[in-house]
Each structure stands twice: as structure tokens, then as C-alpha cells.
Amino acid sequence: MNAQKRYEIFSRLRDNNPTPTTELHWQTPFELLTAVLLSAQATDVGVNKATARLFPIANTPQGILDLGIDGLKDKIKTIGLYNSKADNLMKTCHLLLERHGGEVPDTREALEALPGVGRKTANVILNTAFGQPTMAVDTHIFRVANRTRIAPGKNVLEVEQKLMRHVPKDFLHDAHHWLILHGRYTCVARKPRCGSCVIEDLCEYKEKTEIG
């Protein structure tokens, strides 16, 4: 895929959704970090229901610690893997208070040093909370990048690196949100909705469907 085609793809995605953002509900970097930590193998809808119970009571590191592990588990027990997620969140809160004055750090190294925070989560925080041009490659982005041929790669890191290299700078800040939403609602896993896709004529997927 050439640079001109990539530019047109992201132009259309932007025109279709000028201000994309995460579907997780958050107000502060700590709320976003908490929501992302809870989102592994869970839907955003499910996470939002849990944080709607949690955040009015505890939405700071000290607040979570004051709630205690059992209190935290009670608020998030509707989410899969809630026991391990609660443990990681409690440990993260301790470290945020010990190392960062209770604030969420804005560097990859510091974020990835927190329990349960890997490269993808760090990229989400850096981009969405702090406005840095990062690419958080999840299953949706991996699929869309490979299927469309925008940035094909054998693993998430290869796709991330190619996207960072090939996405035009004008679109880099919002690109990962556009790609996630495109994969979640249009370029879905089993039968992509090519018939209603705004980039169908630019996409290089060979097995297009007429589904809208």
C-alpha cells in the first residue's frame, strides 16, 4: 500500500469521526489507567458498569487502598479475572503513591513498571491521557492493519512499528482510535461489513463481502 492511499484512508476515517476517543468512561489519568487495567478480556461496556460503581466511592490511589482488597473486589466482581485485576490495581496504587506522589506517570518506562501494565496499556495511557502519538495495537488494530494492508505484520509489535512509520503525521494522534473503532464496528472479525465501509475502495483485502 502506498503513502497516497494511506493518507486518503485516514482522511476518510477522520471525516467520518473527527474526534474519536476511547469508549471507556474516565475523567482523570488514574481513572483511565484503572479502566484499562480492568479491560483485559472484558468489554468496555462491562468495565464502564463496574467503574460506575467504583469511581464515585474511590477514584484515586489512596481511595482504592482505603477501600481495601475485599471492597475493591466487591465493586468489580462482574468483570472477568477480577481477583487478579484487583491485586494488580492495589499494587499499582501502592507504587503510584510511593514513587509518583499519587499521580500517573507520563513515560513508558514508569508506566510499564506498574503491575499489570504492559506496552499496549502504556500506549493507551500515553496517547489518551497525555496526548502522545502512540499506537496501542489490540486485536482489532492487528486485524485491520493486516486485512487492509495498511501495515501488515506477524505480531503486534511489528504492526505497531509499521503503523508508527507509515501513518501520516497529520493523523498519528488519533489513528489508533479510528482503527479500533473501525475494527470493532465495521471491519469485524468473521464477516467484515465491506458494503458499508467508507474505505472499501482503498482497502486491499481480497475477500470483500457485500454485507453492510
From TrEMBL:
Gene Ontology biological process terms, A to Z: base-excision repair, AP site formation
EC numbers on record: 4.2.99.18
Residues binding [4Fe-4S] cluster, per UniProt: 187, 194, 197, 203
The keyword Iron-sulfur is annotated on this UniProt entry: yes
Domain HhH-GPD intervals: 38-185
CDD domains with a match to the protein in the record: ENDO3c
InterPro entries to which the protein is assigned, alphabetical: DNA_glycosylase, Endonuclease-III-like_CS2, Endonuclease3_FeS-loop_motif, Endouclease-III_FeS-bd_BS, HhH-GPD_domain, HhH_base_excis_C, HhH_motif, Nth
UniProt remark on cofactor binding: Binds 1 [4Fe-4S] cluster.
UniProt keyword terms in alphabetical order: 4Fe-4S, DNA damage, DNA repair, DNA-binding, Endonuclease, Glycosidase, Hydrolase, Iron, Iron-sulfur, Lyase, Metal-binding, Nuclease
Cofactor(s) in the UniProt record: [4Fe-4S] cluster
Gene3D superfamilies: Helix-hairpin-Helix base-excision DNA repair enzymes (C-terminal), Hypothetical protein, domain 2
Presence of keyword Nucleotide-binding: no
Superkingdom in the source lineage: Bacteria
Reactions listed under catalytic activity: 2'-deoxyribonucleotide-(2'-deoxyribose 5'-phosphate)-2'-deoxyribonucleotide-DNA = a 3'-end 2'-deoxyribonucleotide-(2,3-dehydro-2,3-deoxyribose 5'-phosphate)-DNA + a 5'-end 5'-phospho-2'-deoxyribonucleoside-DNA + H(+)
Pfam short name (any one): HHH
One term of GO molecular function: DNA binding
Cited function: DNA repair enzyme that has both DNA N-glycosylase activity and AP-lyase activity. The DNA N-glycosylase activity releases various damaged pyrimidines from DNA by cleaving the N-glycosidic bond, leaving an AP (apurinic/apyrimidinic) site. The AP-lyase activity cleaves the phosphodiester bond 3' to the AP site by a beta-elimination, leaving a 3'-terminal unsaturated sugar and a product with a terminal 5'-phosphate.
Record family assignment: Belongs to the Nth/MutY family.
PANTHER family per the UniProt record, alphabetical: A/G-SPECIFIC ADENINE GLYCOSYLASE/ENDONUCLEASE III (PTHR10359), ENDONUCLEASE III (PTHR10359:SF18)
Name of the protein in question: Endonuclease III
Origin organism lineage: Bacteria, Pseudomonadati, Pseudomonadota, Gammaproteobacteria, Oceanospirillales
